[in-house]
Amino acid sequence: MDLLPDAIVQFILSHITNAKDVASCTCVSKLWKDSVPNFRTLYFPRNLFDNLKCGQTPDLIVSQMVSSVDRLEELVVYCPFTGFGLSSWLLHQGHFLRNLELRMDNIVDHKSCVDVPSKLDCIRAAPNLESLKLWGVLMIHPPKWDAFRRLQNLKIVGARMEDVALSAALRACPSLTNLALLGCEGLGSILIELPLLQQCKLDFYGVGNCSLSITSPRLELLEVQGCSWIRVRETPCLRDLTIANNSGRVYSVDFGKRLALESLSMRGVQWCWNAVSTMLQLASEVKHLYMKVEFTGDFDALLPFPEVDLVDFFNSHPKLLTFDIHGAMFAALCQKNSLKMCVNSRFVIPSLEKLVITIRSPLNAEQKMSTLESLLRYARNLRKMTVKILQMKSSHSSADDFFEEICRLRYMNRKTLSIE
Questions:
Q1: In the 8-state DSSP scheme, what is residue 243?
Q2: In Å, what is the CA distance from 88 to each residue of 45, 52, 63, 77?
Q3: Are residues 244 and 330 in the same domain?
C-alpha cells in the first residue's frame, strides 16, 4: 500500500463499509485517518456494541462516526439505537443519504412505546432517499413523512401495521418502482395506488383474510401471501404472478379480462374453485405454471377439485413449457372422461418440456397411470418428467402395486421419466 499513490489509497479505503474497520483505519496512519471523510457507506452490525465501556452508548458512537464523514450516501444500522440517536445522525447527513437501512426493533404494544421522537418520523429528515429498508417496525399511526420524491425501493420486514398507517406511508412514496412488505401483521384491507410500481412482494401474517386492491399499470411482478380477496386491474405489463394463502382461503381474484402472464404460481390449502378457474382462464398464454392447492370449496368444507378435461386444459394453454402440479389438480386430470379425446391422434401438447407431478394417494391408480402415459405420449417435446411420491400412506397393497406400475413406466421411458 505504501507504494501506491495517495489518491489510489484513499479510493480503495473509501470502499470500506463496516464501522469497525472504518474505526481501525484511523489508527493506522494520518493518511488513512484523513481518508475517513471520503467514505460513502457505513454499516453497523447487530452485535457491534455488545462490550461497551462505561459512558459509551451506541447512539453516541454512531453519531461520532456519521459526523466524521463529509457526504454519507448509505447508512445501515442493525445495532440498537434510539429515536434521539437517529434524529441526530440524520440531522448531519439526511440530505446526502441515498440508501438507508434500519433495524428498528420497536414492535411492542403501542401503549407502552416511549420512543420519542418516533424513529419512523425521524426518517423524513432524509428527503432524497432512493432506497429505504426497515426491519422490525411498529406502524400503528401514520408516519409524519413528507413526500419522498426520489424513493424507488421500499422494503419493510417484520412489522405490525394498521391500514391507515400503511396507506399514509405509501402516499408519501409516489415514485416507488419496487415494494416489499414481508412478515407484516395487523392489516385487514390494503390499498396500493402507485403508478410507477413494477415489482411488488407482499407477505401478510394472520388468519389469511386480508383484502388487497392494487392500481399500478406498470406492474411486472406480483407475489401475494395471506390475502383472500385480490383485485388488480389494468396490468398489461404483468408477467410473473404468485398467489398463496397458507392460513386462510382464496375467495376471489379479479385481474380484468386478460393477462399476458409468463409465470403463474398458485399455492394454498383451499381456494374457491371459481378463483382457480378464473386464474387458469386468464393465464392462457402462461409458459410456467406451478399449482399446489390442496382443496376447493367455498366455506369450511374441504372439497376435491372438480373434473378437469386434460385435452381442453392443454389446448387452452398451448405455450406451457414447465408444469409443476401437485396432488389435487393431478387427480382432477385423472377422471375417466378426461382422457376420452386422447384417442384422437390430432391432439398434441405442443410446447411442454418439463413436467413435475407430486402424487400423495394411490386412489384411482388406473386413471392416474393412464394420465401419465398420455402425457408421455402426447407431449412431443417433453424432455424431463419427474414423479414425486410424497407421504403416501396406505395399509392396502394398492400403494405397492401403484408404485410398481410407476417403476415399470419409468423403465420404459428411462430417458425422460424419473422418480423421487
A1: E
A2: 19, 20, 7, 14
A3: no
**Residue 417: all three cell numbers together:** 421419466
Residue 391 domain boundaries: 306-420
C-alpha cell at 372: 401419465
Q: pLDDT at residue 345 above 70?
A: no
- Please state whether the peptide bond connecting residue 304 to the residue before it is cis, i.e. omega within 30 degrees of 0: no
Strands (DSSP E) found in 339-419: 354-359, 384-389, 417-419
Over residues 273-316, the pLDDT tens digits come to 999 999 999 999 999 999 999 999 877 788 989 988 888 899 99
**Cis peptide bond upstream of 174, omega within 30:** no
**Is the separation of the CB atoms in 194 and 216 below 8 Å?**
yes
8 Å CB contact between 133 and 111: no
CA torsion sign, 251 to 255 to 258 to 262? negative
| Burial of 265: CB neighbours in 10 Å, binned 0-12, 13-18, 19+ | middle
Element (H, E) at 123: none
Please say whether the dihedral angle defined by the alpha carbons of residues 309, 392, 410 and 416, taken in this order, is positive or negative: positive
Fill in the amino acid letter for 395.
S
**What are residue 308's phi and psi, to 5 degrees?**
-120, 120
Q: What is the Cα–Cα distance from 318 to 362, expressed in whole angstroms?
A: 29
Residue 420 lies in a domain: yes
Number of H helices and number of E strands within the chain? Answer: 12, 19
Distance CA 349, CA 322 (A): 12
Same domain, residue pair 352 and 403: yes
Backbone phi, then psi, for 210, in 5-degree steps? -70, 155
pLDDT band at 112 (very low <50, low <70, confident <90, very high): very low
Question: Global pTM?
Answer: 0.89
For the chain, the domain total comes to 2
- Nearest-angstrom CA–CA distance, 162 and 342: 53
| Alpha carbons 259 and 324: distance in angstroms, whole number | 20
pLDDT tens digits for 53-111?
766 788 888 898 888 888 999 999 999 899 999 999 999 999 999 999 999 987 654 44
If asked whether residues 363 and 296 sit together in one domain, one would say: no
